[in-house]
Specification:
- Keywords: Kinase, Transferase.
- With about 110 residues, this protein is mainly alpha-helical.
- It has a single domain (about 5-85), classed as 3-Layer(aba) Sandwich (Rossmann fold).
- Helices cover about 35% and strands about 5% of the residues.
- It has four helices and two strands, in the order αβααβα.
- It has helices at about 5-15, 30-35, 40-45, 80-95, and strands spanning about 25, 65-70.
- The chain has a two-stranded parallel sheet with strand order 1-2.
Length: about 110
């Protein structure tokens, strides 16, 4: 996760053009906290963890990510993580970044 544009730009510069995919997971803080099996958000809120993105360290949304995954559906209900993963895999397959027999098929 890169919380600042400069960090995302640095990561993009490490790869050849077309090989870096910026993914923005649009997830309200409450969803992140609900899906936190290690309890890191709770520790950050209690002050045990410092510099935790979204709590005491700001997160700047990307301005032009290649992929936006919404953690909630149109009605506001949480989407299952598996559905979000499949959406990302489909995109990666569509743009030719996945290879092998299990890769999603590319449109003709």
């Amino acid at each position: 996760m890169s919380s600042a544009p400069r960090d995302r730009d640095r990561a993009r510069a490490l790869l050849p053009p077309g090989r870096f995919v910026e993914v923005f997971m649009r997830a309200p803080l409450e969803v992140c906290e609900q899906r936190d099996p290690k309890g890191l958000y709770k520790k950050a809120r209690s002050g045990q963890l410092k510099g935790f993105t979204g709590i005491d360290d700001p997160y700047e949304e990307p301005t032009a990510p290649e992929v936006i995954l919404d953690a909630r559906d149109a009605s506001g209900a949480p989407r299952p993580p598996q559905a979000l993963a499949l959406e990302l895999l489909q995109y990666l397959g569509d743009v030719g970044l996945l290879q092998g027999p299990d890769a999603p098929s590319q449109p003709a």
